[in-house]
Amino acid sequence: MTDDRATTERDSATEERPIAVTLENRLMGHGIYLTSFACKDKGEPPAEDGAGIELEYEVVAETPRITRNEVGAVLRTLLTIGDERSWTPGRLEVTSLTTDGDIRGWWYVEREWFEQLGSGLSQLEFSQRVLGTIKNYRAENDSR
User: The whole model's pTM is what?
Assistant: First the structure.
């Protein structure tokens, strides 16, 4: 996903790896390989609360559709990193790919959903909203 410098660079103030590198390393254990991480806002890395993120990842699974397990793994990992760094992500836009680089589908999380999680929005409601955003590429193409 990143060049060699990104895996060794650390924030000089906190000595933490960039969020993209931390996310990439932790998702590998779930068979999810981050291929792209981009901040939608000008600030790099997304240290500001509410910074928008675009992710792209490959999954090792043979499943042609996005699964709730992969969505859950990405979200749990991102939220854990956020908790560790006292940071809340903004709008998250995600593309899921096969290991051949073919698009499996897309999903997203609104900034407000992250902000409301735990206060005005239960984990179940949050999950239902996110799972409701999944658009599987194969289903989209099969209907044409």
Answer: 0.82
